[in-house]
Amino acid sequence: MSGRRRIGVMGGTFDPIHHGHLVAASEVQAQFGLEQVVFVPTGQPWQKSHEVVSPAEDRYLMTVVATASNPRFLVSRVDIDRSGLTYTIDTLGDLGAQFPDAELYFITGADAVEQILSWHRVEELFGMAHFIGVTRPGYSLDSAHLPDGAVSVVEIPAMAISSTGCRDRVRAGLPVWYLVPDGIVQYITKRGLYRDEDAAPTAEW
Ligand code: ATP
Ligand code: MG
């Protein structure tokens, strides 16, 4: 391994950001000696182009709130400020230009690594960053179809949390305390995120 500074890149919809994302980033930061991990909320993710996602500014602000206390975590607006669908190749291109002297480590869930082969210009992607596939309960990584050494796998301590699960809980009036940081619970309530438009307001948690 070279002595260049190492920068992690954690892309995601972050709708909302939850402790699974934060633990994964922290674990990879420690294991790979990353100087910083840059969280990059997507614009409109191409994989989710038919789904309704919360406004980019809400997802960006939640990411800022959740990462603010960790000096190794940063948030980038590159994807939300770029128009059109978000492609990882553009994310890595923009961050490579911003950190020209760094080796990039792209952190992604095992579920997403399996889709990597369907990503745009995949050979080019592997040349732009090391890929770290983080596994969570219920997912295992089948790297059989990936080029040798292209993807490292890191197991994240039991974190069966997903944004979908958090959104469903909010919609059902169930608490998301301790699944997401406290500030995110409060932000979701303040902005009325994940409630059905015409549902009756529920009591404050
Ligand atoms: P959704 O349920 O809406 O798909 P998500 O929880 O998968 O949301 P994303 O914003 O899609 O969250 O995820 C960003 C990245 O974090 C993806 O690479 C995803 O695989 C990874 N990730 C999500 N949840 C976890 C978790 N609990 N542990 C480790 N990685 C995770
Ligand atoms: Mg997901």
Automatic annotation (TrEMBL):
Catalysis: reaction(s): nicotinate beta-D-ribonucleotide + ATP + H(+) = deamido-NAD(+) + diphosphate
Keyword Transit peptide in annotation: no
Pfam families assigned: CTP_transf_like
Domain Cytidyltransferase-like: 9-169
Enzyme's top EC category: transferase
CDD domains found in the cross-reference section: NMNAT
Domain of life assignment: Bacteria
GO terms (BP aspect): NAD+ biosynthetic process
Coiled coil ranges: none
A molecular-function term among this protein's GO annotations: ATP binding
Gene3D superfamilies tied to this protein: HUPs (3.40.50.620)
Pathway assignment: Cofactor biosynthesis; NAD(+) biosynthesis; deamido-NAD(+) from nicotinate D-ribonucleotide: step 1/1
This enzyme's EC code(s): 2.7.7.18
InterPro entries in the record: Cyt_trans-like (IPR004821), NadD/NMNAT (IPR005248), Rossmann-like_a/b/a_fold (IPR014729)
Keywords, comma-separated and alphabetical: ATP-binding, NAD, Nucleotide-binding, Nucleotidyltransferase, Pyridine nucleotide biosynthesis, Transferase
Family that this chain belongs to: Belongs to the NadD family.
Function as written in the Swiss-Prot or TrEMBL entry: Catalyzes the reversible adenylation of nicotinate mononucleotide (NaMN) to nicotinic acid adenine dinucleotide (NaAD).
Protein name (database record): Probable nicotinate-nucleotide adenylyltransferase
Organism of derivation: Saccharopolyspora montiporae
Gene: nadD
